[in-house]
UniProtKB/TrEMBL annotation:
Organism: Kineosporia corallincola
Keywords: ATP-binding, Cytoplasm, Kinase, Nucleotide-binding, Transferase
Name of the protein this chain belongs to: Guanylate kinase
Pfam hit, one: Guanylate_kin
Residue positions binding ATP: G12, P13, T14, A15, V16, G17, K18, G19
Single Gene Ontology MF annotation: GMP kinase activity
UniProt entry tagged with the keyword DNA repair: no
CDD domains: GMPK (cd00071)
Highest taxon in the source lineage: Bacteria
Start and end residues of each Guanylate kinase-like domain: 5-184
Role this protein plays: Essential for recycling GMP and indirectly, cGMP.
Subcellular location: Cytoplasm
Segments passing through the bilayer: none
Gene, per the UniProt record: gmk
């Protein structure tokens, strides 16, 4: 179980559903602080500045990285950069509040170097076939991008042993509740809201 003031890092292969689990935590567990990453990629439909990401240009990202203001950063899928603002994470941990970082594998490795006391959780798909289905089903990437992500995912799956625990994302609610219980909180009862 994670002690208060300890960072939890959630990582795993591309398209495994890290963002979906993080969104479920954001919706159902307000006491958990979720880090908002900085990225150079353009927003996807429905993404909001400061909620899903901080969208910046390359020059601004360079400034943050050079000033040591990022806990980790990486070039993802050979194109866009993503990073975690250091000051926000440190401030939340100092308050003793549960904090969660949802990042890619490269980022998780940097966090291990910068904050070795963090708790590392690997989110994995029920199978590689299911991961392929999710990648194709998302429809946000062209075939070349899907192929690149699939190659990346196969490499990323091999990194599971680097993590403290693994959680299978076969059901978002179940995976979220398992993660939350590892963070030392009691899972809440599911409340389905029909609007």
């Amino acid at each position: 179980m994670v002690r208060p003031g300890r960072l939890t890092v959630l990582a795993g292969p591309t398209a495994v559903g890290k963002g979906t689990v993080a969104a479920d935590i954001r919706r159902r567990y307000e006491q958990i602080w979720l880090s908002v990453s900085v990225t150079t990629r353009p927003p996807r439909p429905g993404e909001q500045e400061g909620v899903h990401y901080y969208f910046v240009d390359d020059a601004e990202f360079d400034k943050l990285a050079e000033a040591g203001q990022l806990l980790e950063w990486a070039v993802v899928h050979g194109r866009h950069r993503y990073g975690t603002p250091r000051a926000a994470v440190e401030a939340v941990l100092a308050q003793g509040r549960p904090a969660l970082l949802e990042i890619d594998l490269q980022g998780a490795r940097q966090v291990r170097q910068n904050m070795p006391g963090a708790f590392f959780v690997f989110l994995k798909p029920p199978s590689l076939d299911e991961l392929v289905r999710r990648l194709v089903g998302r429809g946000t990437e062209d075939s070349e991008e899907r192929e690149r992500r699939l190659r990346t995912a196969e490499v990323e799956m091999a990194a599971e042993a680097e993590f403290d625990i693994s959680i299978v994302n076969d059901d978002v609610t179940r995976a979220t509740d398992e993660l939350v219980s590892w963070m030392g909180l009691t899972p809440t009862k599911r409340v389905d809201s029909h609007h």
